[in-house]
Amino acid sequence: MIILGIDPGLAIIGYGVVEYKNSKFRPIDYGAITTPAGMDIVDRLELIYKGMNQLFKMYNIDEVGIEELFFNKNVKTAITVAQARGVILLSCTQNNKPVYEYTPLQVKQGVCGYGRAPKEQVQKMVTSFLNLNEIPKPDDVADALAVGICHAHSNKLDKELSKFY
């Protein structure tokens, strides 16, 4: 299974394309879609949309895992990130890719086995699972890979449990 993990944002959208086969991970690609701060919001959203569509053209992605929004105290930031997330979801839908959403707590649980794990522990586990030489940067990229790993673990568990029901 080829999974696209997404850490949504407006300035930086982390992505990670991973293969999960026979309970093993293989990194295919990871990086970030970035938009300049001074650019008009509509143009930034278009860049995100085009960047997502490019990922779908480049890779044979089976499923998408995306982190749910963590609402902080800055309402303006939350609204702009929500707009970017909406464009990301639209791209997934238009490319006929199933989307699975995970809270930050679920991602940490899926990668570290502990929902309150510190960011550094998540980054180290991502590096270990994917057999990388260093922690992916920026943090949004490591977070996106963590979402992909979380999805693989969640999906495998669902399939295993379905055998019993």
Short summary:
The protein is an alpha/beta fold.
Structure commentary:
This protein has 165 residues and is of the alpha/beta class. It has one domain: Ribonuclease H-like superfamily/Ribonuclease H (Nucleotidyltransferase, domain 5, 2-Layer Sandwich). Helix content is 50%, strand content 22%. The protein has 5 helices and 5 strands. The chain has helices at 41-58, 75-94, 104-112, 119-129, 139-162, and strands at residues 2-7, 12-21, 24-34, 63-67, 99-102. A 5-stranded mixed sheet has the order 3-2-1-4-5. Strand 2 and strand 3 (24-34) form a beta hairpin. Helix 1 packs parallel to helix 2 (75-94), helix 3 (104-112) crosses helix 5 (139-162) and helix 4 packs across helix 5. The chain starts with a strand and ends with a helix. 35% of the residues are buried. Mean pLDDT is 91; it is low at 160-165.
